[in-house]
Design a protein that fits this description.
By secondary structure, the chain is an alpha/beta fold. It has eight helices and seven strands. It has one domain: ABC-type transport auxiliary lipoprotein component (Rossmann fold), CATH 3.40.50.10610. Strand 6 and strand 7 form a beta hairpin. Helix 3 packs across helix 7. The radius of gyration is 20 Å and the shape is globular.
Length: 221
């Protein structure tokens, strides 16, 4: 019953994006030219039939897919003139970050910036889970009229530059789907919201207002 209440509460929180950033985020990021998107630390739903090797393999595949989607989303915004940062390609990023021990925590994000020769790195943690099966959700819907969460997607991200290991910017994006929801569609929406809400998109508030204040510090507005 506790789980049932939890799923119903989550339904109210169907989609959410929150961001936080340092006070001088615009002056700092305006000096950035190149960024690397690091492989997301990824958690997926483990099915009962999965062996350890199969689960690890699927996690790696999902991680590579997510990293590629994030980079493509950034590049799409760059091509549309909505993002001014250049993004390092996935092969160059991984050829440096993985042997350096990024996954094992043997190298800091600040050190990776210098090693990759970029101004900032984009770190993320992605959790893709299935709280209940479609069959269970259908049963509860027919038996009690209760709508349960069948897909849960949470993405936490941060920007770290070469000057400090403390994040300049953080984001939490989440989306929860009910019976019939499609994870791929949910994931695309979360990734679009993530890249849209970085400080490199100065056409979107609050960064638009901060950028205007940066250009015209004496403006009364």
């Amino acid at each position: 019953m506790k789980w049932l209440v939890f799923f119903v509460v989550l339904l109210v929180l169907n989609a959410c994006v929150t961001v936080d950033y340092v006070k001088n985020i615009i002056p700092i990021t305006q000096k950035h030219h190149t960024m690397a998107v690091l492989p997301p630390r990824t958690t997926i739903e483990r099915k009962i039939w999965m062996t350890d090797d199969r689960f690890d393999e699927l996690t790696r595949l999902k991680q590579a897919q997510l990293q590629d989607q994030l980079i493509r989303s950034f590049n799409r915004r760059i091509n549309e003139g909505k993002c001014f940062i250049e993004v390092l390609d996935i092969n160059t990023t991984n050829d440096v970050a993985l042997p350096a021990g990024y996954h094992e925590g043997r190298i800091s994000s600040k050190e990776l910036c210098k090693l990759l020769k970029v101004d900032a790195v984009f770190e993320s943690q992605v959790q893709i889970l299935e709280p209940v099966s479609e069959a269970t959700a259908l049963f509860f819907q027919q038996a009690t009229g209760t709508t349960l969460i069948t897909n849960s997607l949470v993405l936490n991200a941060s920007l770290i530059d070469s000057l400090s290991n403390a994040p300049l910017w953080t984001l939490n994006a989440s989306k929860f789907g009910t019976l019939g929801s499609i994870k791929a569609i949910m994931l695309n929406k979360v990734i679009r919201r993530t890249t849209r809400n970085t400080p490199y998109n100065i056409k979107k508030n609050p960064y638009r207002k901060l950028y205007k204040a940066y250009l015209m510090p004496d403006d009364p507005q």
